[in-house]
Design brief:
The structure holds two protein chains of two kinds.
Chain A: E1 2-4, E2 7-9, E3 12-16, H1 31-45, H2 56-60, H3 64-73, E4 79-82, H4 98-105, E5 112-114, H5 123-137, E6 141-145, E7 149-150, E8 153-154, H6 161-172, E9 177-181, H7 197-205, E10 210-213, H8 221-230, E11 234-237, H9 241-246, H10 250-263, E12 269-270, H11 280-289, H12 306-320
Parallel strand pairs in A: 3-4, 4-5, 6-9, 9-10, 10-11, 11-12
Antiparallel strand pairs in A: 1-2, 7-8
Helix pairs in contact in A: 5-6, 8-10
Chain B: H1 8-11, H2 27-50, E1 54-55, E2 60-61, E3 68-73, E4 78-83, H3 92-107, E5 114-119, H4 125-133, H5 137-141, H6 151-175, H7 195-206, H8 232-260
Parallel strand pairs in B: 4-5
Antiparallel strand pairs in B: 1-2, 3-4
Helix pairs in contact in B: 3-4, 6-7, 6-8
The chains are: A alpha/beta, B mainly alpha.
Chain lengths: 350, 297
Amino acid sequence: MYEHNGEKYFIVDSHMHYWNAAPDNWVPGAEQYAKGWIECFHAYQGLGPPETHWTIEHFQKYSEDDLMKDVFEDGHVDMAIFQPTDLKEWYKEGFNTTQRNNEMGRKHPGKFIYNTNFDPRDSDAGLEELRRNVETYGCKGVKLYTAEWNNGSRGYKLSDPGAYRYLEAAQKLGIKNIHVHKGPTIWPLDKDAFDVADVDHAATDFPGLNFIVEHVGLPRIDDFCYMATQEPNVYAGLSVVVGALMHARPNFFNRVMGELLFWVGEDKMTFGSDYGIWEPKWQVEGFVDWEMPDREEYADYPRLNTAGKKKILGLNAARLYDIEVPKEFRLPAGAGTPAAQDDAQLVAGA
Amino acid sequence: MSPPKGRAAVRTVLVPPDPPQGRGTSDEGRQRLIKRAPEARGQQSLLAALETVRDPELDEPITSLGFVASCAVSAAGDAQVRLRLPTYFCAPNFAYLMVADAYDAVSALPGVRHAEVLLEDHFAAGAINGGVAARAGFVRSFDGEAVSELHALRADFLRKAVMAGTDQVCRPLLAAGADPAALPAMTLGEVPPSRALDRLRSRRAELGLPAGDDAPLLIEPHNGAPVTEAALPLHLRKATITRVSIEANSGICRGMLRHRYHDTKGQGESDPGEPGGVVPPEPAEPRPTTLRSAETC
């Protein structure tokens, strides 16, 4: 919970992690990838305020106590959603698996939601594991990293027949939310791996699922926005937008927020800290303080008021995940409906 | 801040030469002049050549982005360029294009008899460096992992650059009071000269799209068709978001590069800072990219 100027914000951190990327978890022979991956994440942290930077050793493996303090005690978060990433080709026990998240999180009932993941290249065994994870951990969402390496393959597309088979199975198991994260490799390598067109196809063909595009499709914000405008079940995951831009490039942050508010709308944007890349505290506080500057260059962007900030910081994700929001945090009548699908049609067909 | 390891030998030639005037004429001093000055001038030519190489995704020269870790050419004409990127996992297709373009730009310098361009600290450095040195093309460099060369990818991003450039050119016009409805009827020749306009023309020309004075200011980048008045509002909106997307991405890349290399600047690096409206530095006129024969044996 965050209280500021008499307003109370219910905070859902819809994208965070509990990873082990220390050398003891590196796969022999793949050390350079394991090291390169976590160093890349660490460079992202460098875009946050200097006083929030960690040493690389701490960053590789932070403790349960660190997480509980950074996210809940200091970070204002009421409910956090674990987004797993396996990367088992590089990390022996995986980078940040559903199981590892649950082993930690179950000691703190009521604080966490466990998303799981799948890889359509894992065929029947993967489907069985998905079913087991959903049953064991009560998952309502999956996190998909399309650039994950798997047995010589450099990624997949969400529109592949194998992926559709998994999406169908996931939906039958009760999964509602598909978080998609694009990465730098995908077969064939000559294509743009960050292209979000496959998400567009899947969103059209699975209208009963919500597709939350993490990092708003960065580095393809433009393509993402065109798609989100046309697909009522596509949402913008703000992790990295706040973390990488709000402090380091505030003018870019204004403009990216302006574009997202115009094309996607405040009902379809969800806050995520991407912890441990960045701590939520400065992101939540800074976001509540943020105003679109009253300057000519921002004149044609929509404004974000307190109700809109409440939606983005928690109420939208709460609606996607059926999280019960205490009365004191809800919006007054007339302030709009969180995570409403219909408001995204402003330029559709244009 | 100390430079990344393993580059001491290359960096020594980056030290500016002693100025030719006002120096002693001892044999030692003369030898130093003979030996070092051509290298330094050669390095300037190398940098100028590398300035013509762009990150296709960010649409900026690899020099100003800080991607050139070092570059040097020996008196005998052996050029060596080392490139670096913001992350270990930057997309291999774009990385390949930059290494290959750098190789071509440096090899084309008349005084260069042998060029070596090495990408460092990247997961696919081996395949990329080997493939470029062997002039193997992308498909052969990534055996079984790619089905075609990167022309289509490059064109896709040139089209984005045209859209972003449209915003860079139109925004000042509108700020100066131009009527938006008048834009579809305007030609490139009617727009006041600016670096942004030169850049837009050059990107359009690269795509084979009309770029002359009588060409319409606004065209659809996929087919060159003029933009109609009905399509104008969405076209301008798309131009804006394309520019925002590229520039935000560029800002993140610069920040990560800085963190990764502990604030060690690349050769020719410059940061335009935050816009609005700053066009990243780029020479309006093509710089001389040839070595005079006297400078290279």
